[in-house]
């Protein structure tokens, strides 16, 4: 079963995807890990590679192409990135979006990156605006469109264990032959 986990920075997607992969005994591929591999391939620091990505759209396109290829080549996998649900397209069996209010996400990021909550909020807001603009420009994706997702969870409302329980119940009840009411991933321009 190919499951995608997407969401904004600080939503808990990496932690959740790793726990879900462990529970289902499948591999977990993280867009963040691929991004770090790409930086290593160019012998660049993450900071320098992030700066390059802001100037060179090919960085995002290469990352997204790799995610798309991974989705096309794997049937039993947790694929996690901001655009995983979109990049996997209709090949994904279950598409999950995780989210939390900005204040919660900013606190999580501040704790993780040892910075002030105010700084984390400002940086996260700027990053989200930049990403939304790029996704619309590159692929005609409106990142705020949740219609392609099968399950949307507010991670500030449940513990990580409860989130896992909710999703495992969804996985258990999944019927691959019942696509009625599922929004297809259409209109996306995968111009890598």
Q: How would you explain this protein's 3D organization?
A:
It catalyses: CMP + ATP = CDP + ADP; dCMP + ATP = dCDP + ADP. GO terms for molecular function: ATP binding; CMP kinase activity; dCMP kinase activity. It is an enzyme of class 2 (transferase). The chain has 192 residues and is α/β, with parallel strands linked by helices. It has one domain (2-170): Rossmann fold. The protein has helices spanning 13-24, 31-41, 46-55, 57-73, 84-88, 102-113, 117-139, 160-172; strands at 2-6, 27-30, 77-80, 94-99, 151-154. Strands 2-3-1-4-5 form a five-stranded parallel sheet, with helices on both faces. Helix 1 crosses helix 8 (160-172), helix 2 (31-41) packs across helix 4 and helix 3 (46-55) packs across helix 4. The protein starts with a strand and ends in a 20-residue tail after the last helix.
């Amino acid at each position: 079963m190919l499951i995608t986990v997407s969401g904004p920075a600080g939503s808990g997607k990496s932690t959740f995807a790793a726990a879900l992969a462990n529970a289902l005994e499948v591999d977990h591929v993280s867009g963040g890990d691929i991004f770090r591999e790409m930086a290593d391939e160019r012998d660049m620091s993450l900071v320098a590679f992030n700066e390059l990505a802001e100037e060179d759209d090919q960085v995002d396109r290469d990352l997204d192409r790799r995610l798309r290829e991974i989705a096309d080549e794997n049937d039993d996998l947790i694929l996690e990135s901001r655009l995983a649900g979109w990049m996997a397209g209709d090949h994904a069996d279950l598409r999950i979006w995780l989210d939390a209010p900005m204040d919660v996400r900013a606190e999580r990021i501040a704790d993780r990156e040892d910075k002030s909550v105010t700084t984390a909020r400002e940086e996260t807001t700027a990053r989200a605006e930049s990403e939304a603009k790029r996704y619309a420009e590159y692929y005609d994706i409106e990142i705020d469109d949740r219609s392609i997702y099968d399950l949307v969870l507010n991670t500030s409302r449940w513990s990580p264990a409860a989130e896992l329980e909710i999703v495992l119940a969804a996985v258990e009840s999944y019927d691959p032959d019942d696509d009625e009411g599922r929004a297809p991933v259409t209109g996306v321009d995968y111009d890598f």
